[in-house]
Backbone:
């Protein structure tokens, strides 16, 4: 941050906690970052797309591995870029990416990686900084970001990388303690720092039975095969990583400054005093940068898209998610002309079963399915859901996202380890009859590149030990809901974890721009951005708010024709917000945009245009 405030400079690999005013010494470097590595990416292998370009990212099949059992680190990186671009951005030609907004120029440069451990954590998070060859040390700029959802280290490439790298900024990333460092419990195999599979006794980026920090780089002897299935960081680290989101973001920025010192020694030191630092993220990444905004005066500006942010007195994601998991499969049957996906027919049958189950349990009154669906819909409306959020929530019903999210977050909030899930959930490769089996070598090899951080996906399924007919997923969902509504010891652990994730106010004077789609069905603004912004503005903070009509949560799902016909992407507004804050920082006399209800409208079957987006200027 460019100020004259006296502050300790970042020397070497500085600890997240920063320098105390008392002059307390920083911990040794070995306690801060582990397994540093770097690579160069030029010509046919750039920073932004791994040489794939827009056409390569649009390809239906992922980049192939020469040896499916033993892909190289370079092959894994390229495939991770392909997976994360497609998971976050709408890349279809009619969607306007690369012509109407955004772009994918070939960006040569260097990439630096490490594992970083925040104070008190048992397991590290990944950090990475991409430094373009066009980085201007005289106009030094760092964009720091956190992966959306629970994605791996490239999970914000389409958000921060796509904006920052072409502008000559270094871009720093964190997987914020989640990510795709899956661990095969059957084989005792994990993921190395470069994404390749490592075996028993080798240092894994995440080992649920040990710690991959520099002070304990390998599993304890004899612990390599404790349990079956797959463990992953978000669910099984025991750290409740969401509580440290802001710390993860700050540490990523510090890692960037330290790497810039090494990359440009003639221009060193790079500090928060002499380097512009802008934080940006979407979804969970948006929540993470808002948490970082609370932490001192090191940031210059923050842009948060559709953030998972929770303030005291407002229902958190776990509450609304477990409620939606129970009621929404039935409730969406009452939504006329709801959006359709390839799984809608299956979800229709499941919804009818759910209506009958809820009626049998006395949660809904009797009557036919239509009447039951209207009652379930009314219950959601009465608890704060909007019609638009329920309609868009159809997607989460179709793809069973509510159950996947709740099962993972319950384990994380309660800090439950492998085999300790209070509702009996586990994760594993599955047979066709949904019974668990050991993963194959080729499945295991692709997890780091193909996974989203929360299974199901990449060959891993959710094992529901409570499943029972006639409504197989209902018992487990009822158990997950009871962890919010109940008062036993396990519920208290989950509540305690959630309490640690509540957001505070951003630093006074820090420019913050929040963007949220009014039709978001996963993180409805009524429970997230609306109360956060209202509280911050009431406290006099410099927070601005764009509410985008006809935008839901997942740009990547606009590849589905019925969703493209109804909704606009959110990324154009995130990029525009970054443009606005950069212009404001260049010239403080140029104000940030005013709050706006953006009258966006979907393009239907036609290509998207600027008139459809109506981006504020």
Residues:
């Amino acid at each position: 941050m460019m100020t004259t405030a006296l502050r300790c400079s970042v020397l070497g690999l500085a600890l997240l906690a920063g320098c105390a005013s008392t002059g307390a010494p920083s911990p040794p470097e070995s306690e801060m970052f582990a397994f540093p590595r770097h690579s160069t990416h030029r010509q046919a292998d750039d920073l932004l797309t791994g040489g794939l370009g827009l056409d390569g990212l649009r390809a239906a099949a992922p980049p192939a591995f020469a040896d499916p059992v033993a892909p190289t680190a370079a092959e894994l990186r390229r495939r991770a870029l392909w997976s994360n671009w497609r998971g976050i951005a709408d890349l279809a030609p009619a969607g306007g990416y690369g012509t109407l907004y955004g772009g994918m120029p070939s960006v040569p440069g260097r990439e630096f990686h490490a594992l970083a451990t925040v104070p008190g954590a048992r397991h590290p998070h990944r950090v990475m900084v991409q430094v373009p060859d066009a980085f201007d040390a005289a106009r030094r700029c760092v964009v720091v970001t956190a992966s959306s959802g629970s994605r791996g280290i490239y999970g914000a490439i389409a958000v921060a990388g796509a904006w920052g790298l072409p502008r000559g900024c270094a871009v720093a990333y964190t997987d914020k303690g989640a990510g795709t460092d899956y661990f095969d419990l059957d084989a005792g195999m994990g993921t190395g720092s470069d994404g390749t599979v490592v075996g028993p006794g080798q240092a894994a980026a995440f080992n649920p039975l040990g710690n991959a920090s520099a002070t304990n780089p390998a599993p304890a002897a004899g612990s390599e095969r404790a349990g079956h299935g797959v463990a992953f960081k978000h669910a099984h680290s025991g750290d409740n990583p969401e509580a440290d989101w802001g710390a993860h973001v700050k540490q990523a920025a510090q890692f960037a400054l330290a790497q810039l010192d090494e990359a440009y020694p003639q221009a060193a030191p790079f500090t928060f005093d002499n380097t512009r630092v802008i934080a940006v993220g979407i979804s969970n990444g948006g929540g993470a940068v808002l948490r970082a905004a609370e932490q001192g005066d090191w940031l210059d500006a923050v842009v948060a898209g559709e953030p998972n942010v929770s303030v005291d007195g407002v229902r958190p994601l776990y509450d609304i998610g477990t409620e939606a998991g129970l009621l929404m499969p039935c409730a969406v049957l009452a939504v006329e002309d709801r959006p359709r996906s390839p799984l809608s027919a299956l979800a229709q049958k499941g919804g009818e079963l759910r209506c009958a189950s809820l009626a049998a349990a006395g949660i809904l009154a009797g009557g036919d399915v239509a009447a039951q669906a209207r009652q379930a819909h009314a219950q959601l409306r009465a608890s704060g859901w909007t019609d638009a959020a329920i309609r868009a929530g159809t997607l989460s019903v179709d793809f069973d996202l509510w159950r996947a999210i709740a099962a993972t977050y319950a384990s994380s909030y309660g800090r439950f380890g492998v085999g300790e899930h209070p509702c009996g959930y586990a994760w594993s490769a599955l047979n066709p009859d949904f019974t668990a089996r050991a993963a194959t070598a080729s499945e295991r090899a692709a997890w780091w590149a193909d996974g989203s951080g929360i299974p199901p996906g990449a060959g891993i399924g959710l094992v529901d030990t409570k499943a029972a007919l006639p409504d197989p997923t209902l018992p487990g969902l009822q158990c997950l809901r009871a962890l919010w509504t109940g008062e036993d010891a396990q519920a208290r652990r989950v509540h305690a974890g959630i309490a640690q994730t509540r957001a505070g106010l951003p630093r006074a004077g820090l420019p913050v721009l929040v963007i949220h789609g009014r039709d978001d069905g996963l993180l409805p603004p009524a429970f997230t951005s609306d109360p956060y912004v209202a509280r911050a503005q009431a406290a006099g903070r410099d927070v601005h708010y764009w509410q985008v009509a006809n935008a839901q949560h997942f740009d990547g799902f606009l590849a589905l024709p019925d969703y493209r016909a109804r909704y606009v992407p959110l990324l154009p507004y995130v990029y525009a917000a970054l443009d606005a804050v950069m212009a404001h920082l260049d010239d403080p006399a140029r104000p940030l945009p005013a709050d706006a209800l953006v009258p966006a409208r979907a393009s239907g079957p036609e290509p998207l245009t600027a008139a459809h987006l109506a981006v504020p200027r």
